[in-house]
Amino acid sequence: MRTLIAANWKMFKTRAEAQQTARDLVSLLQNDWPQERDVLLFAPFTALAATAEAVADSPVAVGAQDVYPAAEGAFTGEVSPGMILDCGASWVLAGHSERRHILGESPAFVGRKAAFALESGLSVMLCIGETLEEREADKLEIVLRTQLEQAVRGLSAEACLKGLAIAYEPVWAIGTGKVASEADILEAHAMVRNILGVILGSTAGSLPILYGGSVKPENASAILALDNVNGLLVGGASLRAESFSKIIRA
Ligand code: PGA
Questions:
Q1: How far apart are CA 230 and CA 70, in angstroms?
Q2: What is the pLDDT of residues 79-110, one digit of tens each?
Q3: In angstroms, how far is CA 216 from the centroid of its own chain?
Q4: Beta strand spans in the chain (E)
Q5: What's the CA-to-centroid distance between 155 and ligand 1, angstroms?
Q6: Given CA atoms 49, 127, 208, 240 in this order, what sign does their dihedral have?
Q7: What are residue 128's DSSP bridge partners?
Q8: What is the pLDDT of residues 13-23, one digit of tens each?
Q9: Does 189 participate in catalysis according to the annotation?
Q10: From the candidates 98, 130, 169, 189, which is the catalytic residue?
C-alpha cells in the first residue's frame, strides 16, 4: 500500500498564504519526489481553488475539510461535494474531532457526509478517535466501533476501495504536543483494522489507516514504521512547507 501524508490546515491561511505554502512545498519536493508517498493538502474552503491551482502541475492532491451531504439546496453556509470538485479538490475530511466535539456533529451525521461525498466522486478521509475521558473509562473500542459502524456500514466495498481512508486521531493528542505512544498507536490501529474487517470483510486490508495527533518531523518516521499505519494526518506541523516536507520524506 502507498503511504499517504496529509496536511490539515484547519482555519489557517488566506488564499495568498495557502498558495505560497503549496508552491513552496512543490518546489521542495519536485527534484526528488519521494517514492511510494502520496501528498494531500486539506485547505480551508476559501483557499481551496487557490491551493488546487498552485499544485496543478504536481502530484499533490487537494481536499476540503468538511462537506454537506446534499447536492444543492437551502442549507445556508454549507458547501456541497460538487462545489468542492469544482474548486479542483478531490478529497474531503469527514468527522474531524474538532467538528465532532466543537460543532457537535454526531456519528450518524458524519456517516451521511462520508456516504454522500463518496457517491459524489470525492475521496473521503473519515476521522475517528476517542477523548481522554473515553480512553480512561476503557471505552476506546466502543467509541471506534460506533464511529466506524455509523460511517462505513452503509458503504459498498467498491466505494470504500475507490475512495475511503481512515484517520485515527486520539482527541487528546491533537494540537496538544502529546503524541500517543507506539503501543497506543499499534493497539488502536489493529482495533480499527479488525472492526473494518467485521464490517467490510477482506476489503478492510486494503484501506489506508492514517495516524494523526501531534505528528512532527522528529516522530514521523517511527510512527510510519508501525504495523497498520499507512500514513499521517498532520495539523500544526503542516502549516510550514519546510516542516511538512520533512514529514513527507520521513
Ligand atoms: P495536530 O493536528 O497535528 O496539530 O495535532 C492533527 C489534526 O487535527 O488533524
A1: 30
A2: 999 999 999 999 999 999 999 999 999 999 99
A3: 16
A4: 3-8, 37-42, 61-64, 91-94, 123-128, 164-168, 209-212, 231-234
A5: 27
A6: positive
A7: 168
A8: 999 999 999 99
A9: no
A10: 169
Cα 9 to middle of ligand 1, angstroms: 9
Helices (H) then strands (E): counts for the chain: 11, 8
CA of 73 to the centre of ligand 1 (A): 32
190 C-beta neighbours (distance < 10 Å), count = 14
> How sure is the predictor about 162, in pLDDT bands with cuts at 50, 70 and 90?
very high
Above 90 in pLDDT, residue 113?
yes
State the cell numbers at 238: 503542516
pLDDT bin (cut points 50, 70, 90) of residue 31 is confident
Written as nine digits, the cell of 249 is 520524506
Say yes or no: CB of residue 235 within 6 Å of ligand 1: yes
Task: Write down the pLDDT at residue 177.
Answer: 84
